[in-house]
Amino acid sequence: MGTTLSLAAADGHALGAYLAVPEGRPRGGLVVIQEAFGLTAYVRSVCDAYAKDGYASIAPALYDRQCRDAVFDDPTPPEALAEARRLRAGLEWPKVMLDVQAAINQVRRAGRVGIVGFCAGGSVAWLAALSLPVAAASCYYGRDIVDFLDCAPKCPTILHFGERDQHIPLEDVERIRAAFPDIPNHVYPAGHGFDGPGARHNEAAATLARSRTLEFLRMHIG
Description:
Elements: E1 3-8, E2 14-20, E3 28-33, H1 41-52, E4 55-60, H2 78-89, H3 93-107, E5 113-118, H4 120-131, E6 136-140, E7 157-162, H5 170-179, E8 185-188, H6 203-220
Parallel strand pairs: 3-4, 3-5, 5-6, 6-7, 7-8
Antiparallel strand pairs: 1-2, 2-4
Helix pairs in contact: 3-4
């Protein structure tokens, strides 16, 4: 369903992206933000699925500033996991926002634009909700959200966490909830990456979180 293309950020950086468009008139646009493992088959499948739901969905390759085409579909080898962690740690939030804005620009012709992000992308989606022109944000298990509680999101936002997440203590989830009690903050009986592929996938949690996200997008985008 999808295609690859190149985007141009405002500072001149060219980055890759994956775009999936719906049949017929789109309900709106959606930026899908990768996990720590790059623009994987899983991320592309998320774009495909939301395109089937009516959203022109684009996933920007956020690691392109450090390493072109860095994708870890199988992150289990120690060297692959180490490289993914290195690239994730190397993300510079201001430059990431430039790349996300380029993705927004690509799909804004479809209508209002939302953002959904997973893992590292959950943090990116939160930061986008604070500073970029998105109409709605769905943030899945973003570890860095707790570090950015000084300002409220400028758009409707929904959060998803796993109660057995080894990377995000429940104390951090409660800090976020206390800072923004009006933001829907859902905790699922699952671990980190419960929407993702492989052993970490939790079908019940993934299905419920996606249904909540889709309802949220219908409400705020179309």
